[in-house]
Specification:
This protein is mainly α. It contains 4 helices and no strands.
Length: about 90
């Protein structure tokens, strides 16, 4: 027979969501720390959608998957175009 308890389970609060840019930088740093080329790995993930391209080290895979791939691409393009046009 299973026994049930009346104890309350406490869960950790969900941390504040970081911006797409902050997340990309954190994930790139984790990839680099593990010896991967962040550009190659992130490009592979963005093109294929396969989360195996991103290490689970420092929860990088979990962090990057909080965003849709189109949101990541949109943020990267926006940053690139702003840098190129100076706006």
């Amino acid at each position: 027979m299973s026994q049930t308890t009346q104890e309350t389970t406490m869960f950790k609060p969900v941390p504040e969501s970081k911006s797409v840019a902050e997340t990309i930088l954190e994930v790139a740093a984790a990839l680099k720390e593990k010896g991967y080329n962040p550009i190659d790995q992130l490009a592979g993930y963005l093109l294929s959608g396969d989360p195996a391209y991103v290490t689970s080290y420092k929860d990088a895979r979990l962090k990057i998957r909080r965003f849709e791939r189109y949101e990541l691409i949109e943020a990267l393009l926006q940053a690139y175009l702003q840098e190129q046009t100076g706006k």
